[in-house]
Design a protein that fits this description.
Helices cover about 35% and strands about 25% of the residues. With about 475 residues, it is an alpha+beta fold.
């Protein structure tokens, strides 16, 4: 059966009483208004709502019985009332008996043909409005709680980093993966944060100590009581571990506090070493300590300035290679030879900064095996505009013995490429010497275009990178 398009036929045989009951069933409040907007009658079936309606509404203008922000909506309802159709529903906030408490009513209007009165029917929105207010309050409380949690997290992070103790937080499972480590622990263990988060804490220990450490940590988890144990880290460095458990979002974690076993010796060492640390920090040359893989653990002020970064924290755990220029072949060879053994090497490379400028640097590096493998580097900036006789002040050509040492460690094509580069560098220097630094004449002697010569000059650090061809 199709839906009827003639509602008048649906109600034509009903009595006035029956029509009134239908109106009451479909509306919480009914208001009769005349053409002048004066309220003629008000009826509310719901007694709870009826008690909130002022008793002096009869004879009062409907515009004056609502909140100021609802008067425009009332005007629309009066203007839109007609016998042919019901008006658009609009929310009107009527004045109630209690001060500063409005009655939200969803109203629609229709004009009666029989008496030319405007009939307004409305649904009480008090409960809906209360739910909306409760929702707003709940959202406000959630926002405040989130802000409070964020502030607590920031305080915890500050305490976690500012404190003098070395702290590691690990997940309490079979592998004990590290999920957080503070700066003191990284310095004490010579670790890069990006290089250890997610890795097992047991991987830091010497092999013969893993079983002992696993039993100790499991005992702390089982008993739930804080405990202290002595163990040995890699490099025979004796460390005292204090462990305690805590739960976060239903998951168990361990908080580990690492202390040197001989605190007096450690304090004496730190005091005697402080002058060395200050000297390195304030040195005019850039100084960096990194992992054998090239992740930066420590950098002094000079290197921060040389790399044109804001502060040391921006460098920590980033790759040293990312700050070098395009030509890193010598540097990569140096890192390969230093990895895994205590030795010293040097090379020439360049540093690229955020401003895209390139600075030629001489790099001296030394590898350390104990207490943990790391590489220390000194970066000394070279003035590319220095006197032409000092452009290449190191031995450019390797001896046959040095080249033979590379066989088996470096592919033949790389050895040949290095030899070609060195010969090319010597030829360019000789051409510049012959032409008294006239680059146009030098390019003609070498059979190169001026642009090709300029690229090679920059490649070998024989020209100021910020200065073009003459």
């Amino acid at each position: 059966m199709s839906v009827s398009n003639h509602p008048n036929k649906l109600y034509q045989d009903l009595s006035s009483k029956e029509l009134s009951q239908i109106a009451l069933a479909s509306a919480d409040i009914s208001i009769v208004v005349d053409d002048l907007g004066l309220i003629q009658n008000v009826y509310a079936e719901n007694q709870h709502l009826a008690k909130k309606i002022p008793a002096d509404l009869i004879g009062k203008k409907w515009l004056e019985a609502v909140e100021v922000d609802s008067r425009k909506k009332v005007q629309y309802l009066l203007e839109e009332a007609n016998p042919e159709s019901i008006s658009k529903f609009r929310q009107v906030n009527m004045l109630g008996n209690e001060k500063n408490i409005a009655l939200p009513i969803m109203c629609a209007s229709i004009k009666a043909l029989s008496n030319q009165k405007i009939i307004v029917i409305g649904k009480d929105l008090t409960e809906t409005s209360q739910l909306q207010q409760d929702l707003v309050l709940a959202q406000k409380e959630i926002s405040q709680s989130y802000l409070h949690i964020s502030q607590l997290e920031a305080r915890f992070q500050s305490i976690f980093e500012i404190g003098t103790e070395s702290i590691i937080i690990v997940k309490a499972d079979d592998l004990y993966p590290m999920i957080e480590i503070n700066g003191n622990a990284m310095k004490q263990l010579l670790l890069a944060k990006n290089n250890c988060i997610g890795k097992s804490f047991l991987s830091l220990l010497s092999t013969n100590e893993i079983i002992k450490a696993r039993a100790f940590l499991q005992e702390v988890i089982d008993t739930g009581e804080p405990a202290v144990s002595d163990t040995f880290l890699i490099g025979s460095k004796t460390i005292q571990i204090s462990a305690s458990t805590f739960t976060n979002i239903g998951k168990p974690y361990l908080l580990l506090n690492l202390k040197p076993l001989d605190l007096t010796k450690s304090a004496d060492f730190l005091e005697s070493d402080s002058l060395t640390i200050q000297a390195i920090e304030n040195n005019a040359y850039g100084f960096v300590v990194c992992t054998p893989e090239g992740l930066i653990l420590k950098a002094n002020k000079a290197f921060v300035k040389l790399s044109n970064t804001k502060n040391e924290s921006d460098l920590i755990s980033t790759s040293i290679q990312s700050y070098l220029g395009a030509e890193t072949l010598d540097f990569d060879r140096m890192m390969l030879s230093l990895k895994g053994k205590a030795s010293s090497q040097s090379c020439t490379s360049s540093i690229k900064s955020n401003s895209s400028s390139i600075k030629l640097v001489d790099i001296s590096a030394v590898s350390v095996v104990k207490p943990r493998a790391c590489i220390g580097m000194i970066f000394r900036q070279i003035d590319s505009r220095q006197d032409k006789d000092k452009r290449i002040n190191k031995k450019l050509v390797r001896s046959s013995e040095e080249l033979s040492l590379l066989v088996g460690q470096v592919p033949l094509k790389d050895i040949l490429a290095e030899t070609t580069d060195l010969i090319e560098q010597l030829c360019i220097k000789a051409a510049l010497d012959l032409t008294n630094d006239n680059r146009v004449s030098a390019s003609e002697i070498l059979g190169l275009s001026r642009q090709s010569l300029y690229i090679k000059l920059r490649k070998y650090g024989l020209v100021d990178p910020n200065k073009g061809i003459d």
